[in-house]
Design goal:
two-stranded antiparallel sheet, rod-shaped, mainly alpha, 1 helix
Length: 108
């Protein structure tokens, strides 16, 4: 065996080989962690996009709720007008019936 300054070259080569194996494993682990972080960033971007879409949907729903409230007010107003119109139509029908009765009573 070759020895240089008290070092056994075979032992040094074996140690370097073990260190290289450990470093390669650490590099793979770091690469895996980097890939995981990239995936997490993509997921966060997707969640942000979904959150924005949900916010827009809520804003649209709020607008629809306001429109529905306006329609409810209009429908209530129309129901009141309908009730008054029915009352007026009833009075008008009574007046016409009375007028027809008077006219018919005088003619006959």
């Amino acid at each position: 065996m070759i020895q240089t300054q008290g070092f056994d070259c075979a032992e040094v080569a074996a140690r370097l080989s073990r260190i290289e194996t450990i470093l390669e494993a650490q590099c793979r682990d770091i690469a895996d962690m980097r890939d995981a972080v990239v995936r997490l960033v993509r997921i966060e971007e997707q969640q942000t996009a979904m959150r924005d879409a949900v916010t827009q949907t809520h804003e649209r729903l709020d607008g629809l709720d306001e429109r529905c409230d306006d329609f409810d007010v209009r429908i209530t107003d129309l129901e009141r007008v309908r009730a008054v119109a029915g009352w007026v139509a009833g009075i008008a029908a009574s007046v016409i019936a009375a007028a027809v009765s008077i006219v018919m009573g005088r003619l006959l």
